[in-house]
Each structure stands twice: as C-alpha cells, then as structure tokens.
Amino acid sequence: MGVGFDADAAALAVEELLRPFGSSERAERGQRYLKSDLEFFGVIVPDLRRVVKEAVKGYPGLDHQAAVAWAVALWRKPVFERRAAAVEILHMTGKQLRAGDLGTVETLIRDARTWALVDPLAGDVAGGIALRDPSAWPLIDAWATDEDFWVRRSALLALLPGIRARRPDLGRFERYAALMLAEKEFFIRKALGWVLREISKRDPRWVADWTARHAAVISGVTFREAVRRLPAEDADRLRALRAGGDDSPAFPQSVLPAPESMERKAAWRTGRGRSAR
Question: Residue 104 domain-assigned?
C-alpha cells in the first residue's frame, strides 16, 4: 500500500476520530501529571487503542513503509494522543519492522521527553525489533552510553521482550548495568530495577545473586524493585546485607556469581528457571 497511501491524511483521520473521546478535565490532568508541553485531548488509553485498531483495519494492505510513514505523520503534530497513536501503529504493525527502522524509532525516542511515550517505544517497539532481528543490537548497545538519559533508559527497556519471551540476555543486562550503576537519574535507576523485577519472575536466584553482589552500590529504587518479587527469605537476607546487619555471605558462594549456562537457558525455555529454595 506504499503507493497511493496518504500518510498525512490518514494521520488527520485518526485525530478526528480521537477528538470526540477527549475530555478537557482529563486533558488538563494528563498534561499536569506528565509535566508535558504537548497538547492533550484527554482520551483514555482503551479508547485510543480501539480507535487506532479500527483505523489500521481500514488499510488491510498496509505495508511496512506505509505504517512507518503514518506513525511519523502522526508524530509531527505536538499532540500527546497523536503521538501515542503513532506508537500504537508501530506496535500493531511491529512484525514488519526490522533493524533498519530503529533509526526512526530512536528519533521518536529523542523527541518524546516523557516515559509515557519513551517506554512503549523502547520496550514494545525497539525491543520487539531486536527480538526478531538480532542485527538491531549494535545500535541499541550504543544507546546505553548516549548522553540523553531517555535513550539510555531505552537500551535497558529494550531487553524486556526477550525476558518475557524466556530468552533473557543476562550478559547484555550486566554490561548495561555496569555502565549505569552510578547513575543519579531516577528514570535510569527505576529502569534497572524494572528489568531485574521482570527477570526475577522466572529466575529469582539469578536476580538474588546479582543483587547481593551489587547491594552496596545500587540505588534504593533499584534495590526495592529488584527484591520485590523475590522469595521472602531471599529478600530479607538481601535487606540485611544492604543494611550491614549480616556478617555472613548473603548467599552460598557456589552461586556467587553463576555464569549463564546451557542449563539456565533451557530452564528459561521450559519455565523452570526458578529458585530451588
């Protein structure tokens, strides 16, 4: 559908469909909550997703180039709901996206300036691309050292689809974390904890070991997220270690550190990557 598809007209059509679902009260509240300079219509997420889903259905032959062009056209106007719709289109058509589209995604991330747009662009779109097309990782690796903290945060969140698909890239997380442990930026500290929390849902032992090794240097928000889903015994032991109230090693030396092995990868695929405790 690349030929003859008018991305600007399609973007305007989505805007016109969204407006009736808006509320001035919600718009003011959303703008204040996100501390954003964008215009807001005040559309709730379920309504926005329903509108976008119906709009995408209206173009059954929508191809890769048209989907990206549509998203970019929606993004041009500084309206939160238009930009959120752009993210939804990229997510809904994500299976067509490949590493070559990460440049566009990065441009949107740099322009987003709010977690409400950055997080789905990174965690759903960029991470989904990397899960399907491993050649995307060199660019995402470069994000981990970018001057823009939203871009650095995006490198971390791009790991989430692999974790949820039972294909965690633990080595890459460790490399990213090593670069960011000293970060003072809240959104980086929170992202580190978020990724650890997601890993702990299937591999609490790995997260407990990693947290024990870094308990003295990670931020409070990272630590709280890391232990949130751990077994109570492990979480309590880590809290004691962090507080300096336990002179003994928090975990047996045999599991500190435990390099990823073929057995660990197999455990993730079968859902058995859990603590034996």
Answer: no
User: Are 206 and 174 in contact, with CB atoms under 8 Å apart?
Assistant: no
Packing angle of the helix pair 232-243, 204-214 (nearest 10 deg): 10
Name the residue among 39, 36, 52 with its Cα closest to residue 112: 36
What's the pLDDT at 263?
36
Counted domains in the chain: 2
CB 26 within 8 A of CB 39: no
Provide the token pair at 14.
């989505």
| Predicted TM-score (pTM) of this structure | 0.86
The verdict on residue 220 lying in a domain is yes
Region 162-180: what's the mean pLDDT?
A: 97
